[in-house]
Structures are given as C-alpha cells and as structure tokens.
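Please go through the sequence line and token line underneath and see whether the fold suits the sequence. See right below:
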Amino acid sequence: MDAKGAGGETSSPQYSDYEEIVLSPIRLRIATKMAESKREIPHAASSVDVDFTEIWNYGLKHGEAFSKKTGSEATPFYFFLYAVREALKKFPLFNSHYLEEGGKAKVRRFKVLHLGIAVATPQGLMNPVLHGAEALSFSSLVRGASELGKKAREGRLSVEELTGATFAVNNPGALGGARCYQIIPAPRVAIVALNRIYSRPWVVEEAIVPRRIAALDLSFDHRVLDGADGIQFLEALKSFLEHFPFEVVES
C-alpha cells in the first residue's frame, strides 16, 4: 500500500534497496544521440521475410573455402551487407543525410557509400564505419567488416573508423533477435536490420517445405522517404538475397 503524505495524498514509496549506475561517457553519448534522433526524425518502418536457404546451404558447403579466401566464417550477415550495397545502387536516396541549415531543409545524397555497422560490445553499442564500400569486392567487404567488428569489441577503433557513415545496418539476429524497431542515427535517413534466421515451413511451388527464413526490418525518415520507397527497397534486397550471385564470392 502506498504511503500517505501530508493532507492524505499518496506519495511515492521510498526504496532503500537499490543501486545507482552512473552512465559511462560512451553510454551517455549513445543516450543523447538516440534521444535526439527519436525526437527529431518522424520514423516510419517496414519489414519483409526473406528466404536465406540458398545462402545458408552455400555457407555449409563452401565454408572452408570461404574462410580461406576472406579470413571469416561464411555467415549470412556478410551476404546481407553485399546485398545492401547493391540495393543502394538502385535506391541511392537511402544513402543520404537530412540537413537543416540556414533555415532551409535539404537532402545530401552521397555518391560514395560509408556503411555504419552496429556492433554490440562490452562498452555498449558501437557503430564502426566501412568507408568506400561502394568500390569493394565481396571478399574485401567481408574482410573490412570483420576487422571493424573485431576492433570494436576490443576497443581499438580510431576516431576515423567511428565517423562519416552515410547508411546504417544492424545485425540483431546475431544475438537472437527475431524482430526489431530501430532508431535511425541522425543525420542518416534509414537503417536496415537482419534478424535471426529460423527454420520454418515455407511454400515453394505449391509445396510446403522447410526453409531458412529471416525478417529484414527497415526504419526510415518520412521527411525524405515514403512507404512505397521503403517497400521497394526491401523487395530489392529480398530479390537479391534469394537469387544471390555466388560467383562474386569466388571471384
């Protein structure tokens, strides 16, 4: 029962059994930036389920060769990164910043792609940046992303490796996430996530078969992009992933 204060009004209960944790500088910066982004950006979201079976089977069959070529395991996330890069070529407006300067609003659409990759670390969420991703081969993209993830977890990222992202990707599936609603890191205008890949019954040519399925979740800035843009971008990603050109892995 709540304690009664003066005048018979209910006051907040007093607790003595607790611990106060002062936010670290990194956690405080994350909190400040995320609150600012959520407050300023009119978020919209869309999602699509994707059949990763062929990519999954490729990794199982060619994992050793993949590791020798790239130095990393053949995880679906790397195929997802490459697909994002290719989809952004068709939908370059997603690779933009929204800016307000001098009383005017504008969209700065980039010709280069600097991929901000969310990485969970003991120090908190980090967003190392893979610069110049538009020009990388598949193997170079994998090596670059893998090295950034390792450096983030070890706390070895430079200032340059933490700045300049033009587009954001997330990988909650690595932690078991099945669906997610993401805050867009301003001034970027979108973030897309690969969720956990599940074995699920799926309809293929009128037959129900087990397939490896994952959801892709997209959050986008409704000042710059509309619902149709979000759906078309996700459909392009879905089509690329479900018909992945594996020759790029081996080239």
Notes: The chain has a mean pLDDT of 92. The first strand starts at residue 43 and ends at 51.
